[in-house]
Amino acid sequence: MVRVAGDRAGQRLDNFLLGQLKGAPKSLIYKIIRSGQVRINGGRAKPDTRLQADDEVRVPPVRLTASSDKGVPARGLLDALEASIVFEDARLLAISKPSGIASHGGSGIGFGVIETLRALRPQQSLELVHRLDRDTSGLMVIAKKRAALVELQALMREDSAGPGGGGLRKRYLALLAGRMPDGVMSVDVPLHVGLRQGGERHVQAMTGGNAASGKPSLSHFKMLERRGGQSYCEVRIETGRTHQIRVHARHIGHPVAGDDKYGDPEANRRLREQVGLRRLFLHAASLEFALDAGCSPYVLNAPLDQDLVAVLDRLG
């Protein structure tokens, strides 16, 4: 029997059980709810039932064979994530995610950021606030308290509503191929996420008569300096769409350097051979927001990865 804490009030039963039964697949969660093995205050419930503070939830014994087969994250991954922590307080943890590590496991990836952090902190309740592309490095925020998770996700929905949001200020650093104009270039182009054969996501910029089929997306590219014929930029986004910066950068004719999905293969080859760029040059540099209805401001920063600093130095 598990008593629902006050900060879990309003949470769906299925999500509550996913937190209680770490590693359990959703299919198993739904099965034990449908079969009546899970009870709230003695009665049956549905997956979308909202819990109240002090509810008593019966959680049946569950054997998680798949989880035990999966083992634990490799020591190198555990050490890398431990070393990546850039900020922590009672309710939030922030890391500078290395490039090449997924936000979460799945699709052939055994352990992502969240699974590895949970392995490092088995006694803590940790939840992803947002995600970064696997190849993007930089700032990621993880909630240690449900109240912080709920408030931050509300701020993100505020942003996703389109221009005029402002719950969070997200700043990225990127190297774009070619010579961008000076100043700030704003890209207000809807994006549509499609699936290619094999389930791979591919995002398209939707213009003209197709614009209505995309979701509103707004990015601001600010020219910082030119290096070796390329453009080192600051990017601020007002929406958080899948692959937004990468697709908007390609749309304006200056794809992100090292992008093997939306980039320029010939430019990528030259940068790899001449300055050793072997990854996507996109880094989530900072995140600004305020919790407690605006009373507790946060300004979180993740310094540019050393391998990207070295690329800039070689470009001269």
Quick structural summary:
By secondary structure, the chain is α+β, with helices and mostly antiparallel strands. The chain contains nine helices and 15 strands. 27% of the residues lie in helices and 26% in strands.
Describe this structure in words.
The protein has 316 residues and is an alpha+beta fold. The protein folds into three domains: 2-66, RNA-binding S4 domain (Structural Genomics Hypothetical 15.5 Kd Protein In mrcA-pckA Intergenic Region, Chain A), CATH 3.10.290.10; 72-152, 2-Layer Sandwich (Pseudouridine synthase), CATH 3.30.2350.10; 168-315, Pseudouridine synthase. Helices cover 27% and strands 26% of the residues. The protein contains nine helices and 15 strands. It has helices at 13-20, 26-34, 65-70, 75-83, 113-120, 146-160, 244-251, 265-275, 306-315, and strands spanning 2-3, 39-40, 56-58, 85-88, 92-97, 127-128, 137-143, 169-176, 184-188, 191-195, 201-205, 218-227, 230-237, 282-291, 296-301. The strands form three sheets. Strands 4, 5, 6, 7, 8, 9, 12, 13, 14 and 15 form a ten-stranded mixed beta sheet that branches. It has a three-stranded antiparallel beta sheet with strand order 1-3-2, with no helix packed on it. Strands 10-11 form a two-stranded antiparallel ribbon. Helix 4 crosses helix 5 (113-120). The longest helix has 15 residues, at 146-160. Mean pLDDT is 89; it is low at 160-165.
